[in-house]
Amino acid sequence: MEPGATLAIEGGARASARRDACMDEAATIRAAQSGDAEAFERLVRSYDQQVLRLAMNLLRNPDDAHDVYQETFLRVFRNLGSFRFDCSFSTWVYRIATNLCLDLLRKRKVRRTEPAAVETGEGVMDRLEAVPEARPAGDPQRAALNGELRAVIEKALDGLTPRERTVFELRHYQGMRLKEIGEALGASEEAAKNCLFRATQKMRQALGEFL
Amino acid sequence: MNCQEVRDLIPLYLYGELSFDEEERVERHLASCAACAAERARCEKLTLLLGEGEAGVSAELLARCRRDLAAALEKERRRRGWAALRRFWTEWVVSPPMWLRPVGAMAMLALGFFGARMLPEDAAVLGPLARSSPPAVVGKVRLVDTTDRGEVRVQYEEIRPRELRGSFQDERIRRLLLAAANDPTDPGVRVESIDLLKNRTADAEVRRALINALRTDENAGVRLKALEALRPYAHEPETRQALAQVLLDEKHVAVRMAAVEMLADVQEPDVAGALQQLLHREEDQYVRQRTLKALAAMKASYGTF
User: Which one of A143, A175, B223, B288 is most buried, by most CB atoms within 10 A?
Assistant: First the structure.
């Protein structure tokens, strides 16, 4: 068999697996629409980690991220009956979550004055504690640099408009394509592209000293 | 394409968001322009640096969200059930449409009459209700071929959600909790399982699972939970050894701090050695101070010799 033929078969198998996954999800959605609680639970578990990560990245506050998580899936639950498969289910869920985050971001433009430590159900937690920490063993200089870098990134993200920030987070941290981002935000791909362009320009300017 | 146009497109080029033609033009320009190639390298570095700014999600937060959502959904379902019942009662029983009233009366009469006649006398009036199984998910197709009769034969694995309720004494519950504590796919489930297992640490197998989580789990929240669960056993050699390893390998400050706190109460020479080693490499001021305090309480020196 020619190498090209192997690739074609592998590609076909992958496409087929994707199709099966979509069909499985469609069946799960239909089951959830007809009131199957377990099916709904499966849908939640398929997306809840991404939704929480998105909310945490955008809002940088565990309590706000928690609220967005709750509200997103309650809205999904309440409106699941009207989901007509016009777009992908993930786009629909992201649309709800990003709109909630955008509303919150627009409401609070005072994040700089928020304390570094917040009271959570599990006790006092540092906002940056959840950030994966690359421990620079035996290198205090690098530790200081990482801390400084994180602070600069936080500040630069704060400087973006809510829309720029949302597009940037969705593309950079969530790995969504601009087309999907446009669909999730109810905007065109071109508008999402412009937002991403402005956001990266601002981030580049803010992080200039590290480049 | 001039330099400015290319530089504007570099971020989108790195995100893979350019059309085939645009990408081609940018690449051609980058191959022949050193200044723009340097700009591309700077943008790549920017992308790398921005990785530092990603906020992680703690397993505790995920578990809390799931718990609260389950409670909120339960409330929502109850509210929805009552609303539907009220609507049905109002629309079809209290004030049914005029056309339905004689039809309803006749139907009720017929149902009573024929129902009584058709039921066998010895049959249980309400037989066991057939419980439909939850829908299965096809996990993996293992084999596909054809039989001699031309039929297609597909052998597949089936994943079917099941629910088990019982006490901690139930061996099946215990086994499932131990398995869930190591489930690599879901930190929320791991942290919840460890939270439940923490009251069963008298069981050596549970302790081993907790030590394993402490040593290997990729999520700091899960490691912290396992560490707290092991607190009553900090004096045991196996646990002590795991805690000493945490001091040297753990990336998360909160977990290192908790390990120091636990070891501070254990007056053993090997613990002092581990704390001295930690002091040698620790950058966090709070952890350093607590380590110094613990060493002072043990009457141990600060340095290693």
Answer: B223
Q: Are residues A114 and A50 in the same domain?
A: yes
Tell if the CB–CB gap between B134 and A38 is shorter than 8 Å. yes
Touching check for A209 and chain B: CB below 8 Å?
no
Same domain, A121 and A18: yes
pLDDT for position B248: 85
In 3D space, the residue among B192, B240, B198 whose CA is nearest the CA of residue B219 turns out to be B192
Lowest-confidence region among A57-66, B10-19, B107-116: B107-116
Helical residues (DSSP H) of B230-297, grouped into ranges: 237-249, 253-264, 269-281, 285-297
CA angle centred on B175, ends B212 and B249, rounded to 5°: 10
Per the listing, tokens 């069963």 go with B200
Q: In terms of domains, do A60 and A3 share one?
A: yes
**B-contacting residues of A 150-189, CB under 8 Å?**
150, 153-154, 157, 171-173, 177-178
Q: What are the pLDDT digits (tens) for A139-192?
A: 555 566 677 888 888 888 888 999 999 999 999 888 889 999 998 888 899 999
In this structure, the answer to whether residues A9 and A84 fall within a common structural domain is yes
| Shortest Cα distance, chain B CAs vs residue A44, angstroms | 9
Checking if the pLDDT of A27 tops 70, the result is yes
Q: Note the pTM of the prediction, 2 decimals.
A: 0.59
- State the average pLDDT for chain A: 79
For B146, list phi and psi in degrees, rounded to 5.
-120, 150
3-state secondary structure of B132: coil
> At residue A128, what is the residue type?
L
Question: Per the CB < 8 Å rule, is A211 touching B42?
Answer: yes
Q: Do B73 and A52 touch (CB under 8 A)?
A: no
Measure the CA–CA gap between B96 and B99, rounded to whole angstroms: 8
Can you name the residues that pair with B154 across neighbouring β-strands?
B144
Question: Is A193 close to B12, i.e. CB distance below 8 A?
Answer: yes
Picking from A127, A144, A161, the residue at the C-terminal end of a domain is A127
Measured between beta carbons, the chain B residues lying within 8 angstroms of A66 are 61, 64-65, 68
From residue B161, alpha-carbon distances to A101, A197, B136, B158 in Å are: 33, 45, 7, 10
Given A127, A150, A181, which residue is the final one in a domain?
A127
C-alpha B63/C-alpha B221 separation (Å) is 10
Domains of chain B: 3-48 (no CATH), 171-297 (1.25.10.10)
- The percentage of residues in chain A with a pLDDT greater than 90, rounded to a whole number, is 40
- Which residues of B are less than 8 Å from A150 in CB distance? 52-53
- State how many domains chain A has: 2
- A204 has a chain B CB within 8 A of its CB: yes
